[in-house]
Write a structure and sequence with these properties.
Helix content: over 70%
Largest sheet: none
Radius of gyration: 17 Å
Structural class: mainly alpha
Number of domains: 1
Distance between the termini: 54 Å
Strand content: under 5%
Mean pLDDT: 81
Number of helices: 9
Length: about 170
């Protein structure tokens, strides 16, 4: 069992790390949360159906709820605010560490709703298939494809306007 868990860890660690980093915006919190995620996964590994296609979705579901719990426990979030939405406001810290030429991309991401950013994160940052995203967020694959296309169009328009100095 330990060898199978280590193989899963090695295969999906980078995806889980990117997913959490996109939500927290800083590497310190991400390191702690990813450790917690894999600790939880190890404890429940025996309950997992061993199909490879299921492992990534299972880990991302654990990741998603671990990040939500993390933000719920933080004191600086006002009561009644969605802790997952708060996490996405920290994304600007992540972009400050990268090349500032991505300013228009950053602005387009921040212009999205939290649900739209979640879809972008799962589909394009983590690289899940639509069926896997559907398992995590509880939406139909066809709906996700249409929504994804609309989000890309929205971002493209925002980026074009930003590059032309209209934003």
């Amino acid at each position: 069992m330990h060898e199978k868990f280590v193989a899963m860890y090695d295969q999906y660690f980078d995806d889980i790390y990117r997913f959490v980093l996109f939500k927290t915006g800083n590497r310190w919190d991400t390191d702690d949360l990813v450790s917690e995620i894999f600790r939880k996964a190890f404890q429940k590994f025996h309950t997992l159906n061993k199909e490879a296609s299921n492992q990534k979705s299972w880990l991302l579901t654990i990741s998603r709820y671990t990040v939500i719990d993390y933000y719920r426990k933080r004191k600086e979030i006002a009561y009644g605010h969605d802790p997952e939405v708060y996490g996405y406001t920290q994304v600007s810290l992540f972009f400050q560490e990268t090349d500032r030429r991505n300013g228009c991309l950053e602005e387009s991401l921040l212009s999205l709703t939290p649900d739209e950013r979640e879809l972008i994160n799962l589909k394009y940052i983590v690289g899940l298939k639509y069926a896997e995203v559907g398992e995590i967020v509880g939406k139909a694959e066809q709906w996700l494809k249409m929504k994804s296309q609309r989000i890309r169009q929205k971002m493209a328009l925002w980026i074009n306007q930003c590059m032309e100095g209209e934003r």
